[in-house]
Known about the structure:
Radius of gyration: 21 Å
Oligomer: single chain
Bound molecules: thymidine-5'-phosphate
Shape: globular
Distance between the termini: 43 Å
Amino acid sequence: MKKIFLNLGKQPLANSFLPSISKKTLTKEFFYNLKIAFDTKSYLVSVSNPVNPESQYTDSYAHRASESLTMRTAFAKIAKKLNKRFLPNIVMEIGSNDGVFIRNFNKKKIIAIEPCKNLARLTKKKYKTYPNFWTKSLAKKIFLKSAKADIIFSANTISHIPDLNQTLEAIEFSLSKDGVLVIEDPSLLSVIKNNSYDQFYDEHVYVFSAIAISNIVKKLNLRLFNVEKIDTHGGSFRYYICKTDAKYKKTKNLLKILKEEKKAELDQLKTYKNFSNKVKKSKKELIKIFKKLKKNNKKIISYGATYKSSTVFNYCKVGTKYIDYVTDTTLNKQGKYTPGKHIPIISPEKGMDSSVMYAFLGAWNFKKEILKKEKDFIKRGGRFITHVPSPQIISK
Ligand code: TMP
C-alpha cells in the first residue's frame, strides 16, 4: 500500500528552462503537486502522481550528461570495466543522452535508445540510435530476429520511467542468456542520510533502494546479484541484474548493502516520516541563511542550474529576491530562466565576477570538481552555501 510521506508543494518540470518571462510563456508553464510515497509492500519509494513522460523528454531537453568532467570520467571507467568483466558483443544503452557512455565502445557493438530527439540526433551519425521511448514494442522491433544484448546499461534513466513493469519486461526479453542489466541511479540510502530531498523531482519517479529493486525484479524473471556504491549524483548505486537462471552468484557486497539498508530501516514507514520532518527543518534553516545575508546586503548567486536546485527553490520559495542569477556551463541553459522561480541563467565567465560573495551550490553533487575550479573565488573570501546534509556556509 502506498503511503504519502512528503509534500514538496507546487513544482514545475525541473528541466524546463524558460526562453523568456513574457506573460505568454509564464501562463503556459506547467505545475503539479510533488508528493512522495512509500509502498509498504515492495518498499519502493516513488512520486505519487508521475507526470506524462511525453511532456518531459521533448526535443528541447536541456540536460547534457557530458557537461561535467566527473561524469565523463565515471562513464569511461565503467565502460572499460564492463568490457573487461563481461566481454559483450552487443551493448545497449537506454537513455544515451549525448553519447557520454557509448562513445567508449566500438560502434559495431552499440545500440542506443534516446527519446529526446535533439539528443538522439547527436549520436545517430556514428551509433545505431533509436529516437524512441523504451517499450516492449521497441524491444521486439530490435531483438525479435537479432542477437540479444549481453549488456544493457542505463544510468539515471530507469528511475525516470513510470511503467517499471513494462520496462523490466522489455529488458528481460532483450537480454541474452547470461546477459546483464546494469543500472545506476541515486540511492535512497544516500538521500535519507544526506537529507537530499532535492533528489525528488518530476523525472525521478523512483528513488531506488537495493531492497526494493530486489523485490521488484523478482516478479519479472530477473534477479539482483550485485550492487556497488558509486559517488555520482550525490551517492548512487550500480545494480547488476540477470535472468533468474543465469550463471551469476549473489555477491558479498549485495548482502552487505542489503544489511546496511535494513539497519537504516529503509523498509519502515517511520523512517520516511522522520525524513519528512528533517526536510521541513532544512527549508526553514536555508531561508534563514538567505535572509541574514540579504539583510547584510550580500550578493548571492546560484552555481549550476540543476534539477536539484529547481526542487529546492520551488519548495523553499526562493526567487530573485535572494538569488541574483544562476550560472551554468551548459550553452542551451544560458540566456534562459529557471523553472518556476524564473531566475536568469548566465555563463560562469560572466557571472563569477568579483561582486559575488556567496554562491548557492545548486550542483552540490559536483562539489569537489567545483571547489577545485573556483579556488580563486574562495581565496578572495567567496563562500558557497549548501543545504546538504544541512544548510550551511562552506569554504571547503
Ligand atoms: P544536474 O545536476 O542537473 O545533472 O546538472 C548539473 C548542471 O550543473 C549542468 O547543467 C552543468 C552545471 N555545472 C556547472 O555549471 N558548473 C560546473 O562546474 C559543473 C560541474 C556543473
